[in-house]
Amino acid sequence: MVARKHAKRANSDVLLRVRGTVQGVGFRPFVHRVATRLGLRGWVRNDSEGVLIRAVGPASTVTALERALRTEAPRAARVERLEVSPTTAPDDGAASPFAIVPSGCGDGPASAAITPDLAICPECRRELLDPADRRHLYPFINCTQCGPRYSIVERLPYDRPNTTMRAFRMCPKCGAEYADQGSRRFHAQPNACPVCGPRVVLRGADGSSLSGAEAIAGAARALSAGRILAAKGIGGYHLMVDAQNEAAVSELRRRKHRDEKPFAVMFPDLDALRLAAEVLEGEASLLGSAAAPIVLLRRRAQAQLAPSVAPMNPWVGAFLPYAPLHVLLLGAFGRPVVATSANLAEEPLCTRVSEAHERLAEIADAFLDHDRPIAHPVDDSVVRPSKGGPIVLRRARGYAPSPLRLPGTVAGSWLCVGAQMKNTVGVASGDQLVLSPHIGDLDGPSTRAVFKRTAAMLGKIHGSKFTQVVCDRHPDYASTLYARASGLPCVAVQHHLAHVLACLLEHGRRADGVLGVAWDGTGYGEDGTIWGGEFILLQKGAARRFGRLRPFRLPGGEAAIRDARRTALALAHAAGDPALWTLGRRLQFSEAEAGLLGTMLTRRINSPVTTSAGRLFDAAGALLGAGARNTFEGQVPLALEAAAAGHAGAAASLPFPLRSAAQGSGADVELDWAPLVAALDAGRLAGRDTRELAASFHRAMAEGILAVANAAGVGTVALGGGCFQNALLTDLATSLLEEAGFEVLVPRELPPNDGAIAAGQALGALWNLTTVSIT
Ligand SMILES: [Zn+2]
Ligand SMILES: [Zn+2]
Question: In angstroms, what is the span from residue 116 Cα to ligand 1's centroid?
Answer without folding.
Answer: 14
